[in-house]
Structure formats: structure tokens, C-alpha cells
Specification:
- It is a single chain.
- The chain has 276 residues and is an alpha+beta fold.
- It has one domain: Clam (outer membrane lipoprotein receptor (LolB), chain A), CATH 2.50.20.
- It contains 7 helices and 11 strands.
- It has helices at residues 2-22, 29-34, 41-46, 48-55, 151-156, 186-192, 197-207; strands spanning 57-68, 71-82, 87-93, 107-112, 115-119, 130-134, 161-172, 175-185, 212-219, 225-235, 242-252.
- It has an 11-stranded antiparallel β-sheet with strand order 6-5-4-3-2-1-11-10-9-8-7.
- Helix 6 runs antiparallel to helix 7 (197-207).
Length: 276
């Protein structure tokens, strides 16, 4: 099992690196809005992850932009998430070729505490099999490796908020939101995070170029995250240069039905995965 996870780790780590090289609850709108300026922004953001749990589920779209060597690429994802079970499902689309065509089929990713499952990932993997990766083995804690930042992990990262300011009001897709801007510390976030997320954030705190993560986050009247954008910085293992990554997550349709089931052991590929 350990050998299989190691192989999966190598493959998953290539998802981002190869792309770089190759190219507060339900208290009501009025009460939440009334204390938006009087309350400490840091305290408000520390409650964001719990508010998502209380909300249950949502749909999500993700975007991850990378810049290295003068090249900028974007990986996009779309799916749904169950915050109480800490399970999500996203279909991830890798960047197009310079000719404007899709080079790879979309990758289906299942997100779970401490694990990432991928289908259509890696040459030689049967179409009906999944690749499993232990996210605590990844130097970035899977904040960027899979081309997606797990929505719940993105929220728990706010537990490491050290400084934050209230920017003001705006709208997102017709929803009134409050905009906050600040900086979170990965090591501090890990100390207060839930099991599974805690280990991933602790690993990322050691693996990133810096543990300080600037962010912008937009909360609706119930304190739910509607949009969050993190700016990570990690070291490209191939070139040893620093890669800037901006990860954006949009959450909407709260309460939608979500049914995520993790693959059975017999459906997880244990063979060798060819280099891409």
C-alpha cells in the first residue's frame, strides 16, 4: 500500500509541475451585516469554515493560475462539495495546447480528508480505475498539486488569519457580499484545522517557499464564503525556481444534493503509471 501511495504521489506532483514547465451560521442577513464593521475581521474569518459546515453542501467552481518563466497557464474545475462529510467531487480541465485544443481529457477528482482520488490521470491507467494519493505525502499538502484547492481546506486556511481588513461591500452573481483582505499563516492554520486538513496544512507550511498566504475573501450575509482567492508561492522541483500560484474558489447553490462515494479498493490502480 505504501508503494502504491508513493507512486501516486509522484504522478500527482507532476500535474502542476508539468503544466508549469510545459507552458457565522444561519443567524440571518441583518445581524451578520450589522456587525460587519464593528466586529474584528480576524474573528469573522476564523468562523468561516464552521459556517460552511453548518450550510451543509454547495456547488463549486475553481480556477488555478500559475506564472513561471514568463508563461501563464490556468487549470479550471467544477463540481460540488459536502462540508459535513469533508467530501467533494470536481471535474478538472487542464490547459489547452498552444493551438487551442484540449490535450487531455478532463480529470475527475474526489477530495477527501488526507486523500485525493483521480480518474483519467496518467498514461497506462485503465479507464475504469482510480489513482489514489496520500495528500500528506505532498510537499504542498495538495493545496496546488491537483490543480484545485480543496474548498474546505481553503476555508480552514483562514484559521491561520493573522491580519485582515474589511474592504467594503460589493456583489457577486447578484448576491451582496462583504470583502475582506488579509494574510494567513499555514502553520497557525494547521494547529486549529480539522483532522486530515491539519496534516495537509502542516506539510504545506514546510513545503512552500513561504508559509504566509495573502488572500481575498467574500462572505455573504450569513457568513458563508462565496469567493476566496489565495496566492501561494512554491518552489518548482524541476527548475528550482519560485512559482506564483493564484487559486480562486467560488461557492454557490448552498444546500444542493451532493452524493460523493469514494472508490472501493478493487477500483484503485496499483500498477505503474507511465511518465507524461
Amino acid at each position: 500500500m505504501a508503494e502504491r501511495q508513493h507512486r501516486g504521489t509522484v504522478v500527482a506532483a507532476g500535474l502542476m509541475v508539468c503544466v508549469c514547465v510545459g507552458t457565522g451560521g444561519c443567524s440571518g442577513t441583518r445581524s451578520a451585516a450589522a456587525d460587519s464593521r464593528a466586529s474584528d475581521p480576524v474573528e469573522i474569518l476564523h468562523r468561516a469554515a464552521n459556517t460552511l459546515v453548518e450550510s451543509g453542501t454547495s456547488k463549486a467552481t475553481t480556477s488555478m493560475e500559475m506564472a513561471t518563466g514568463g508563461t501563464r497557464v490556468t487549470i479550471r474545475g467544477e463540481g460540488d462539495y459536502d462540508y459535513r462529510r469533508r467530501l467533494g467531487r470536481l471535474k478538472v480541465q487542464l490547459p489547452q495546447t498552444p493551438a487551442g485544443t484540449a490535450e487531455h481529457r478532463p480529470i475527475t477528482e474526489l477530495l477527501a480528508p488526507g486523500a485525493l482520488f483521480m480518474k483519467n490521470r496518467g498514461a497506462g491507467v485503465p479507464a475504469d480505475k482510480w489513482v489514489r494519493v496520500d495528500t500528506t505525502d505532498l510537499s504542498d499538502g495538495n493545496l496546488v498539486t491537483g490543480g484545485v484547492t480543496d474548498p474546505y481546506t481553503a476555508a480552514e486556511l483562514l484559521l491561520g488569519t493573522r491580519t485582515a481588513t474589511y474592504v467594503g461591500r460589493t456583489e457577486l452573481a447578484g448576491v451582496a457580499v462583504r470583502h475582506y483582505r488579509g494574510t494567513a499563516d499555514l502553520a497557525s492554520a494547521a494547529k486549529g484545522a480539522s483532522e486530515g486538513v491539519r496534516e495537509s496544512l502542516a506539510t504545506a507550511a514546510k513545503g512552500f517557499a513561504t508559509a504566509e498566504v495573502p488572500f481575498d475573501v467574500y462572505l455573504d450575509g450569513q457568513g458563508r464564503i462565496r469567493k476566496i482567492r489565495h496566492r501561494f508561492s512554491f518552489v518548482n522541483g524541476h527548475r528550482k525556481d519560485t512559482v506564483a500560484v493564484a487559486s480562486t474558489t467560488l461557492l454557490y447553490d448552498f444546500g444542493v444534493r451532493v452524493d460523493v462515494r469514494l472508490p472501493a479498493s478493487k477500483d484503485i490502480y496499483a500498477g505503474k503509471i507511465a511518465e507524461q
